[in-house]
Design a protein that fits this description.
- The structure holds 2 protein chains of 2 kinds.
- By secondary structure, chain A is α/β, with parallel strands linked by helices.
- Chain A contains 6 helices and 5 strands, in the order βββαβαβαααα.
- In chain A, strand 2 and strand 3 form a beta hairpin.
- Chain B is mainly alpha-helical.
- The longest helix of chain B is centred in the C-terminal third of the chain and has 21 residues.
- Classes of the chains: A alpha/beta, B mainly alpha.
- Chains A and B meet through strand 3 of A and helix 1 and helix 6 of B.
């Protein structure tokens, strides 16, 4: 009998990064189904190259919900390209009848950092603790000023968005049955 | 809100063990990772021998690894058991067996 994977809704979390996006597919409370980084190469319109890859993930996993960072939230420092990408992905998902919800970095900080001190590495550590078997070994070393962001950091960002969703849902702060994009 | 059950959970189990498709292919007795990729993309269903080998590799039962497929098969069997139960006479002891299969209460 199927006991490990209860029939539950599936969530696709996407975290755009400079060269592509990190993603995580989760089911139920804490089943990590797939995770990784999709990289787009070459010059030109990166968003146009990313969209088919997201579409492919949606078609394959048929998620009930897509979670992303609200790149256009007040105070967000995300690049305009990323802001456009989040909008494009959201529109595409809604056309495919996938609910979309966006969380600002402020919301992520409030939910996951009790002291309000958000750090990228701190976020990755929280995620690695939640999924030690799958992501514990992927935790990048703490970045120094001379280092670039680790390319796998997008995975941790994506899973963190799922954790925020899970906590907000447990607190009854999310209505699952409505389209949450565009923001009201 | 629920999503349709995935056909299999090979990717999550492979990544959990940090194995590459090539390594899994080798363990299955294949040369390249193409077949494994097709299983993971639900493009192809493995043979019984391969399914059992995957059970050995990932230490998960085949019904868990292929839970979507399992559910589909289970549903088919239940429907057919119901048909057989309805076709079998009341006094026939097999009727109870078919009913139990249909109700998934063999134990």
């Amino acid at each position: 009998m199927n006991t490990i994977y209860p029939k539950e809704f599936r969530v696709l979390a996407i975290a755009p990064v400079t060269r592509g996006f990190g993603f995580a597919v989760l089911e139920g409370q804490d089943t990590l189904v797939n995770w990784g980084v999709k990289v787009v190469n070459g010059k030109g319109n990166k968003n146009a190259k990313i969209l088919p890859k997201v579409e492919e993930l949606i078609a394959h996993y048929q998620p009930g919900l897509l979670v992303m960072e609200d790149a256009s939230a007040k105070g967000s420092l995300r690049h305009p390209r990323i802001q456009r990408l989040v909008q494009q992905i959201s529109k595409m998902a809604i056309i495919q009848k996938v609910n979309v919800t966006l969380f600002s970095r402020e919301q992520v900080t409030k939910i996951l950092f009790s002291d309000g001190q958000w750090t990228k590495h701190g976020l990755a550590e929280i995620v690695a603790k939640q999924f030690p078997e799958q992501l514990g070994s992927k935790l990048p070393p703490k970045r120094t000023a001379a280092m670039r962001e680790h390319y796998q950091m997008g995975i941790f960002d994506a899973v963190a968005l799922f954790l925020v969703f899970r906590l907000k849902r447990a607190r009854g702060q999310i209505e699952m049955c409505q389209y949450l994009y565009p923001r009201q | 809100m629920t999503s349709p059950q995935l056909s299999n959970y090979l990717v999550s189990n492979r990544k959990r063990l940090a194995l590459s498709q090539k390594e899994v292919a080798f363990l299955l007795g294949n040369t390249g990772g193409a077949k494994v990729s097709r299983y993971e993309r639900f493009d192809r269903e493995p043979s019984l021998e391969t399914a059992l080998a995957l059970e050995v590799i990932f230490q998960r039962s085949a019904s868990e690894l292929f839970s979507g497929l399992y559910q589909k098969v289970e549903q088919g069997v239940i429907e057919r058991a119901k048909t057989l139960a309805s076709r079998t006479d009341q006094g026939n002891p097999k009727r109870q067996i078919f009913t139990n299969i249909a109700n998934k209460s063999l134990n």
